[in-house]
Amino acid sequence: MIQIRGVRKSFRDLLVLKGISLAIEDHEIYGIVGQSGAGKSTLLRCINGLEPYDSGEILVDGALVDSQNKKSLRALQRRMGMIFQSFNLLERLDVYDNIALPMKFWGIKPRSPESRKKIEELIGLVGLEDKLHARPRELSGGQKQRVAIARALALDPQFLLCDEATSALDPEITKEILTLLQKINRELGITVVVVTHQMEVVKQICSRVAFLYHGSVLSEGRPEELFIRPKEPEIQAFLRDRSELLPATGVNIQIFFVGEEGSEQPVVTQMARELGRDFSICWAKLEDFRDKVFGSLVLNIEEGDREAVCNFLTQKNITWEVLE
Amino acid sequence: MGGVVSNSGMTAVILTALWQTLYMVFWSTLLSVIIGFIPAVILTLTAPDGLHPIRPVYELLSFLINVFRSFPFIILLVLVIPFTRFVVGKAIGTTASIVPLTLSAIPFIARVIETALRETDPGVIEAAKSFGASDWQILWRVYIKESVPRIVNGVVLLIISLVGYSAMAGTVGGGGIGDIAIRFGYQQYRTDYLVICSVILIIFVQLIQMIGNHLYKRLS
Description:
The complex is a heterodimer.
Chain A: E1 2-11, E2 14-24, E3 29-33, H1 40-48, E4 55-60, E5 63-64, H2 70-78, E6 80-84, H3 95-105, H4 113-125, H5 141-152, E7 159-163, H6 171-188, E8 191-196, H7 199-205, E9 208-213, E10 216-221, H8 223-227, H9 233-238, E11 251-258, H10 259-264, H11 267-275, E12 280-289, E13 292-301, H12 306-315, E14 319-323
Parallel strand pairs in A: 3-8, 3-9, 6-7, 7-8
Antiparallel strand pairs in A: 1-2, 1-4, 4-5, 9-10, 11-13, 11-14, 12-13
Helix pairs in contact in A: 3-4, 3-5, 4-5, 6-7
Chain B: H1 7-46, H2 55-70, H3 73-79, H4 81-88, H5 94-118, H6 122-130, H7 135-168, H8 177-186, H9 191-219
């Protein structure tokens, strides 16, 4: 478990973390989300001790992450594997030796039978058996990240920290990497912490997220709670505000479908028939949150129909709101 | 080694000179690379983006290197005579000329190695840190390991410029191909010497560059 309590950090005069508190439970996939500059990567680097923090505390299973105490910090770092946006593989080492690198730092002989077995297992886990002796420059971005993941697992860590790990990859490859992270989380029981600005990462794998805004946790919870009907204007902005695309006349009503039952109910056509009124659908979206479907759509109706429509929706137990 | 020489004497003269050049260049390269590595590593570690930024150390060392690099070699040659005498026991001769050659090469190669080391991808260093690597491990397993091809390139550059400087070392009795070219070819109007010496130097430099390029490719 990683506990973060009131962590503050500044670079010169700029306060980048303004008292962050959150708790990451064992075996979950926790997302730290926000725009660039929100402080999420800095927070991750503080967790791993790559960056010292000014005040507050970060505890990993009760042990303090303290960059002053090199020895205890190294021991903690051994338990936290890390992957990066730019993969950060050593160009002059082949895949095998890249994966073995952390072992070398810990005095584990990379060519011993046990190490060999371990590395072969890892390369199998990330699905690159045929690339064992390739150099990083011969690999695609997705393959490089797979090698980096294998390397991060070489010391059997408890945690896997991912710093914008899929930001440099195209959507298809991103999906594959996320699936791999999920597999690692499930099969090896490793707690995964992802820092990202990509909604698809959050939606596909995160069980819980913290939304960071200008160095503070604006909101924390399950991704569907945070992102389906965001109250906070900052989160709305993060999801890119679409209200400007809606018609300026009439009334815009957003309807939410939660879970699969909701999306199967033919609300819109029912309403049209029962009320005998016309309206246009201006915007609709279905979203997957870890295989669960959430949807919303925006209807534009005449001002005069407002009451009838609102009553109908309330009667049918539909979640809705008027977009002003 | 002065005076007019016959044709068979010419071969001997040139072979001796070639040997002297190789001898001077080899030892001054080896010594300067070994000695120059130390300030290069200190610069890399104490640089603003290094593992242990210490501004005063970095700036002072950097300043000293610049001072030594800006010394014209011919001046250095004369200035270090007392030091040469102290180290070698004499101030004149092929072995003695290794001292000023090495001294002039140290700041050069130190800069070259520093640049090579600092070109290491900071992300890779960060990754190593994240796995709990010690500074010493990062220095050897990441900085130096990743920089080998670039360092080889720098050493090739050093060897080639040392070939040129070794010609000037002839002025303190260093001998060598360049010295023969000047004393026989230029001062005694022996065009044949001049041509042969030049051709040898051209081949030598080409060879070093070729080997260097090949090594760079193989290593990177």
